Amino acid sequence: MNTTASQSQQHQQQSQQQNQYQHQLKAGLSYELLSFFFLLIPFAIANGIVIAKAAALPLYGGKIILFVLPVSFLFFQLWKKLLVLKLLTALLAIFAGAEAYVAYEFGGVSGSSLYSILTTSDSSESFHYLLQHAQITMLWLVLCAASTALAIYFARRSAFKPGGFVILCLLCIAGYGWYIGAMSASTYLKEKNANRYPTISEDGKEKLFGVGNLPPLLSTVKDTYPYGLPVRLWMFWREEKVMRGMEQKLSQFRFGAAATAPSAEPASKDAQETYVLVLGETARFDRWTVNGYERDTSPNLLKARQNGELVSMRDMITPRTFTMGSIPIYLSGRDIMQEGARQKSLISAFREAGFKTYFLSTQVKKSFLNNVTTLFAAEADVQQYFESDETLGLVYDDALLGPLKNILQEKPAKKLIVLHTMGSHAVYSARYPRAFEKYPVSSAGKAGAEPIDDMQATSNAYDNSIRYTDHVLGEIMQTLALLPGNAAMIYGSDHGESLPTKACKFIGHGVLNEENLRVPYFVWANQAYRQQHVTMWQNLLKNQDKASMTSANFATLLDMAGISFANFPAEHSLVREYRVRPERMVMNMQNTELDFNTAKEKAGACGMLQAKE
After folding, report:
1. Contact criterion met (CB below 8 Å) for 588 and 512
2. Calculated CA dihedral for residues 48, 53, 58, 59, nearest 10 degrees
């Protein structure tokens, strides 16, 4: 009987121990998860805003669950033991507030543009900015302090041994890495058209900004915080290094330019001259009424042409169908990606000739796409950026009109003003105010309206963006027409755009087809200029149907202003007797070259061109 009682007591003790162990296990796991949860709060807020703004939950959700959380849990195990990691994590948590602010305001993660601003701002500017946002800054610091303190408190109470969780985390990371690698390897194999997903060649990237293609895993996590931060900082460092090298290389360059008006058409030395160069974005040649489009997308330009004030080049193409390759060609007449930086831009030539120069932009000052453009913009006497986000379009292009009018009231008699616009860059509906939505992008809330499919909505939004650009150009022409002296405006788009059709669903640019390569190019001049430069205007009219390239803009604008220098490329000027080139070479992102004049379309490949065999 004693034996039975003893066994029963022993059994009860074992049961109590087991229950106690299970209770401790559950409590330990609860403390572990609570500690991990509170530690992640600042980082979760920053990444959550990025996900919400990007509207791509499936894409971001996968990398968060399979990569970010597992890696974070592994670091968390080290964080519990190492003081240095606690301090580093606290610092990163504080900076997560800045990342969250950037994501909320601009719809994306921090990058070269922000880092450039930070490295060029002095401490007083930064301190003043923090004072303006003192309340939200203090609130964020309190949040970070509270979350860190709670994480430490629960970590100390946890005795959980996460062996199984560590193995699970490692499996998730390995699986994610395998998935990314497999997807990257099969992308081109699955696509019938190799140009469906254009990528930039290593050679082109090194010449332009020194950043080669990132490994697939780094590419997918570079927009997360904090793991993508080192990747983005490294990219910024590489870009800065290459840009500084180009800047140093060109620092001693001089055109030796001088303002020498054509002898047949003399101008007063002190006469007022104003030239405006508008660099457009993602505008197709065939979506403007002035170029024959059936929709009313460019009433202002059409009226100007009917009044004899405007010439539209009917057969101009760009050698590059992406911003970072095409804009430098407009400004320098050279393909920087192919040749490297050999000379400065027309801005410097105007400065040498006695003009005051200005560069105003609604594009990001320094981003993946605008490094060389920013380098050329720095040649101007005055630079002003009204930075919009490339996706959300927080600033419309009419933000340039007020500053432009102020500049025109300044004293210098001779001015060059370059306006770099966002134009029709995707998202198209973000490029214009609602008042300019002439063509509906949705039938929601409109009684009796016919349903609008995605394809038609995309086309309508794009046409609205073109119409808004016409409005901005109309305002510029109207303002310039009131000035005394000579005034002229040139508008040219960096490249076109592929829009979805029943035969091809591709949307975007960077590929070699008619829609991407053929661009609008308009030259407007006031009455005073046309009367004083009759021969030039007649030559422009004669050349409007000739085959040309955007590299002609360099010589054309300088020629219109009467600026010349040794070895001036007069043969490329559209205001002279223009001789058509036998070839018009264009290049894709892999630096594969073909002649547009002889190229033919690939069958069933969205109009992509291939070299003639």
Report:
1. yes
2. -90
Evaluate if residue 407 carries a pLDDT over 70.
yes
**Amino acid residing at 198:** P
State the DSSP H helix or E strand holding residue 37, giving kind and residue range, or none if neither: helix 2-54
pLDDT for 358-378, tens place per residue? 999 998 776 545 568 888 999
The pLDDT, as a whole number, for residue 5 is 56
**Is there a contact between 477 and 459 (Cβ–Cβ < 8 Å)?**
no
pTM of the model: 0.74
Q: Which helix (H) or strand (E) holds 171?
A: helix 163-190
The three-class DSSP label of residue 273 is: strand
**Structure-token match 């997308």, residue found:** 297
Q: What is the mean pLDDT of residues 435-462?
A: 76
Give kind and range of the element (H or E) at residue 549: strand 548-549
Find the DSSP H helices in 439-551.
454-481, 514-517, 527-532, 534-543
- Residue 62: C-alpha distances to residues 69, 220, 221, 306, 444 (Å): 10, 10, 11, 56, 32
CA-based max dimension of the chain? 130
Judge whether residue 40 has pLDDT over 60.
yes
- So what's the pLDDT on residue 264? 38
Give pLDDT tens digits for 275-307: 999 999 999 999 999 999 999 999 999 999 999
Helices within 66-162 (DSSP H only):
69-79, 83-106, 112-120, 123-132, 134-157
Torsion of CA 557, 558, 559, 563, to 10 degrees: 160
DSSP three-state, residue 402: helix
The pair of three-digit structure tokens given for residue 150, joined into one six-digit string:
């709670």
Closest to 207 measured CA to CA, from 328, 320, 341: 341
Query: Taking the mean position of all CA atoms in its chain, how far away is CA 129?
Result: 25
Q: Which of 229-238, 326-335, 481-490 has the lowest mean pLDDT?
A: 229-238
Identify the CA nearest to 262 among candidates 579, 535, 578: 535
377 within 8 A of 418, measured Cβ to Cβ: yes
Strands 486-493 and 521-525 turn out to be: antiparallel
Report, in this order, helix, strand and coil percent for the chain, each rounded to 5.
Answer: 55, 10, 35
Averaged pLDDT of the chain: 81
- Alpha helices in 482-575, H assignment, sequence order: 514-517, 527-532, 534-543, 552-560
